[in-house]
Amino acid sequence: MRGVGLAFFAVLALLFPGADGAQASRWGKSYFPDAKVVTQDGKTLRFYDDLIKDKVFVISFLFTTCKDICPLATARLAELQEKLGDSMGRDIFFYSISIDPENDTPERLKQYADTFRAGPGWLFLTGRPEDIHAIRHKLGERSRVLSDHRNEVLLGNGATGEWARNSVLGDLDSLALTVRSMDPNWRAPAGLSRAPQVLKFDFASQPGQALYKRLCAGCHTVGSGDRVGPDLAGLMGRRDRDWLLKFISDPERMRVQKDPAALELAANFRTVRMPAMGVSEGDAADLLAYIAHLEAKDTKRSHPVNSLFGLTTHTGQPLTPEALNGEPVAVFFGFTNCPDVCPTTLLDWSNVLAGLGKDGDRLKVLFVSLDSQRDTPAALGSYMGSFDRRIVALTGSAASIARAARTFDALYERVAGSDGGYTFDHTTKVYLIGRDGRLAATADLRTTEADRQRMLADLLARR
User: Fold this and answer.
1) What pLDDT is stored for residue 220 in this prediction?
2) pLDDT at 21
3) Higher pLDDT, 379 or 459
4) How far is CA 328 from CA 118, 169, 388, in A?
5) Which of 194-203, 214-223, 319-328, 330-339 has the highest mean pLDDT?
6) 156 vs 19: CA distance, rounded Å
7) b or e along 87-117 (b: 16 or more beta carbons within 10 Å of the residue's beta carbon)?
8) What are the Cα distances from residue 101, in Å, to 97, 143, 149, 191?
9) Of 120, 146, 162, 442, whose CB count within 10 A is highest?
10) Cβ of 245: how many Cβ atoms within 10 Å?
C-alpha cells in the first residue's frame, strides 16, 4: 500500500490498538461476545458469527428517543449509504445498535429505520439488555447515561481484524473512501490513487452551503419531496422569516413554548424531531439564503405548465393535460385571503374571457393558490363562484406549489400579520403560455388594454 492507503492504516493502529496483522486475532471471536441480537425485522442473529466475521462494516450507537445527535448522525449515515451505492448489503454493512434495548423494540427500530430509508445491509439491532451491554462494552461504548453515549462510528473488517474510529459529521466523500478501504480487495494497487476529490464550498457567495450539506441534507430535500423532515421547497412561503430564524436556531425551545407551527411539525414528523444543533440566527440566515439558491437553480424550463399537472382543482380533481386540450394558458399565482390584487386580477380576467366571445372557451385561465394551508378545494370552490366559471383554481402541497412557482420564476413569501395571522407578498404577473407549452408573454394590472389585446390575439392565433 502507498499514499492514502499507508496513511489510513497507520492511523488504524493509533485509533484501535491491535489492528495490525500480528494482533488481528485479538479482535476476533475470542474477543467479541457471540450474543444474540434482533434486527428491526425481528430476525435473530449472532453478533460475531453473522455480523462481524468476514464482513466489512460500520457500527453506530443510538436510541430512538434521542432528540439531538442520534437523528443527525443517522441522517448522515443515510447519505453515506447512498454514496456507497450497490456495495451496501453486498460488500459493506451498517449496524446501528440501540443502547436502550428495554424500550427500543424491533417494531420501534423498524419505524426508525424506515424514516431514514435504510436499505439492504443496514441493520438496526436490539436484544437482551445484558447482551447489548456486553457488546457495547467490548466496542468501547461504556457510558452510563444514554445522552452521553459515544458519537463516533466504528469501521471494521472482521476478516483482517482492522478497526478504526471516524465521524459522520465530516466530509462524507472521504468517509466513504475510508469505509471502502477496509476491504483489501478494493484498495488501490501501487501507483493508483483513490483519494477523493476535495470537498469545495463557496463561502463567499454561498456561506450557508457547508451548513446545509452537513446539517440539513440528510433529513431534507429542496423540491424532491419529504424525507426525514419536510421538503424545504417554498419554505419562505410557508413561514415568515423571523419564525424560521428562531426555529432553526432552537427548535426545542419553540416546542417547549408550545409554538403552534413547531408543534404541528412535531405531529407530522413523529419519529424524529429536529434537534438543536447550535446554529446561530446569523447561520440560520445563511442557510435560508442557500435554500433559496437551490430553489432558484434550473427554474428557466421550456414547458413550465407541466409543473401544474397533478395539482388539485377547486372541484377536487387533479389537473391533467387533457383538461387543457393543447390550448393556450394564462396562469396567475395568488391566495383567497388576498385583500386586493388577487380578486382584482381574477375579476379582470373574467372580463377578458367574456370579451373574447367564443375564443374565451379556448383560453384556459388557471389561478394557483400559494396558501396550501387555508385554500382547500372546498374553500377555492366557494371563492371562485365570484368569477368566470371557466377559471380553474389549483391547490396542492406546499412543496408542489413551490415547484410550480419555481418553474414560472414566480416569487412569493409568507409574511406574519400583527393579529397572529399571515399574508403573502407575491408576484402579480399573469403568465401567458402558448400551445407549444412555452412562455409567450406576461401581463399585470398595469398592462394597457391595447397591449394585452395584442398579446392575446397573437397567443390565440398561434398553431
Assistant:
1) 86
2) 42
3) 379
4) 45, 50, 17
5) 330-339
6) 9
7) bbeebbbbbbbbbbbeebbbebbbebbebbe
8) 9, 14, 14, 47
9) 162
10) 19
- The DSSP annotation for 47-114 comes to IIIIIITT-EEEEEEE-TT--SHHHHHHHHHHHHHHHHGGGBTTTEEEEEEES-TTT--HHHHHHHHH
Question: Coil, helix or strand for 430?
Answer: strand
CA distance 178 to 156: 11
pLDDT at 239: 85
Query: Hey, is 147 helix, strand or coil?
Result: helix
Residues in CB range of 74: below 8 A, 6 or more apart? 60, 62, 96, 112, 116, 218
CA 391 to chain centre: 34
Contact (Cβ atoms closer than 8 angstroms) between residue 208 and residue 247: no
Q: What radius of gyration, in Å, describes the C-alpha atoms of the chain? A: 28
16 pLDDT above the threshold of 60: no
- H/E segment holding residue 393: strand 392-395
- Look at the block and give the residue holding cell 456495495: 87
How does residue 205 score in pLDDT terms, banded at 50, 70 and 90? low
- Helix (H) or strand (E) segment spanning residue 384: helix 377-384
Which of the pair, 179 or 24, is modelled with greater confidence? 179
Burial of 30 (0-12, 13-18, 19+ CB in 10 A): exposed
**Cα-Cα-Cα-Cα dihedral sign, residues 85, 87, 92, 97:** positive
Amino acid of residue 271:
T
Q: How far is C-alpha 209 from the geometric centre of its chain's CA atoms?
A: 15
CA distances 21 to 26, 29, 39, 75, 161, Å, are: 10, 15, 31, 34, 7
Sketch out the chain's domains with CATH numbers: 4-180 (3.40.30.10), 209-296 (1.10.760.10), 304-461 (3.40.30.10)
The answer to whether residues 23 and 161 touch, using CB atoms and an 8 Å cutoff, is yes
CB 334 within 8 A of CB 345: yes
| Dist CA 276 CA 237 (whole Å) | 23
Q: What is the pLDDT of residue 451?
A: 84
Amino acid at site 333: F
